[in-house]
Design goal:
InterPro entries: Glyas_Bleomycin-R_OHBP_Dase. This is Glyoxalase. With about 170 residues, the protein is of the alpha+beta class. The protein is about 20% helix and about 25% strand. It has a 5-stranded mixed beta sheet, with helices on one face. Strands 1-4-3-2 form a 4-stranded mixed beta sheet, covered by helices on one side. Strand 6 and strand 7 form a beta hairpin. The protein starts with 6 loop residues before the first strand and ends in a 25-residue tail after the last helix.
Amino acid sequence: MSVRIEQIRLVTYRWEAMQRWWSALLNVDFTPVGARTAIAEGPSLCVVLEHSPITMNASSEVAGIATITVSASSVVTASATVDRLSAVGSAPLRATDDLSGIRVWFRDPDGCDVAIRLPFYPAVSNPLNTEVDPLHILDLLRTATPPEDGSNTFERRPPWQPRIRPQR
């Protein structure tokens, strides 16, 4: 049995900014549930925001979540997500290349680092477990061509299967 995160609850002072940012990430709108709570439910993750004036200058660790990674199912989805985040003023902070692939890191208005795992690997010359230029990765993302069958999907490699890079 595998376990996955389905819902996160974030307590925030930055009520409107957090709703805009997480709406851009998930591509869904928040629905108010009472005066201090709103919910955005994406296909695989539900984000519950709770408005709290006492968290005004709190660090990101106060919420209990310092980082989270979401996966993009296709190049088209990843590119659209990055574009929506850019539209709300969020830029990538960094990119990393690890065994599970490339992750481009953003930061929400409360300081939580959110990585988007991309559905492709970068150039063969990148060593594993290293920082990668995020602008280079975004250029690759924007110029990537979807599969000819129009599916825009990728096959997920099981975590126990070693990563194999193409030979030059």
